Amino acid sequence: MKNIILVGMSGCGKSTLGKFLSEKLNIPFLDTDKYIEKKENMSIDEIFRTKGEKYFRYLENDILKDLENFNGIISTGGGLPVFNNNMYILNSLGNTIFLDVNVDICIKRILNDKSRPLAKKGNVYLRNLYNERKTIYKKAQYTIECTYKTLNEILQEMYIITKN
Question: Which positions are annotated as binding substrate (predicted)?
């Protein structure tokens, strides 16, 4: 089986859906943000505050080498596909799926989670960020429109993709 790589805006449900699919298929799950936190022994928020976003983007790009030997479900950070030609690399590592969720839902989820660096930026910034990033996310091999679907409907679509 190829890796299933989930991309999309922060707050779209990549980690939640990835964990569910991983359990359903009984295969490993990796969240790139959690992986970086473990590797750096600090939270994403701490990395942003102490070392800056540029350093964090370097870390994201650097871990892609580690993912070459992974076989399972990968949930990427919202910005990972956007920088350093990473979307192209992700597409070479497995089946990429853009989880397309209405931006207002993503914003609500982000603003309710103070552990996210983006939570401090506000609605207008997040809306603009989503509009900028969506073009890159759409370069994924598959898109699942998630806004009006149940968890089970989304998982079913993801499951079908894993069979390709």
Answer: 33, 57, 78, 133
Number of domains in the chain: 1
Closest of 52, 107, 60, 102 to residue 79, by C-alpha = 60
**What confidence tens digit (pLDDT) does each residue in 24-58 have?**
999 999 999 999 999 999 999 899 999 998 999 99
Binding-site positions for ATP read 11-16, 116
Rounded CA gap, 160 and 162, in Å? 5
* Tokens standing for residue 70: 């992974």
Which residues fall in the annotated binding site for substrate? Answer: 33, 57, 78, 133
Residues within the annotated binding site?
A: 11-16, 33, 57, 78, 116, 133
pLDDT one-digit tens code per residue, 56-94: 999 999 999 999 889 999 999 999 999 989 999 999 999
Range of 26's domain? 3-162
Structure tokens at 113: 């989670």
Question: Which residue in the block uniquely carries the two structure tokens 């299933």?
Answer: 4
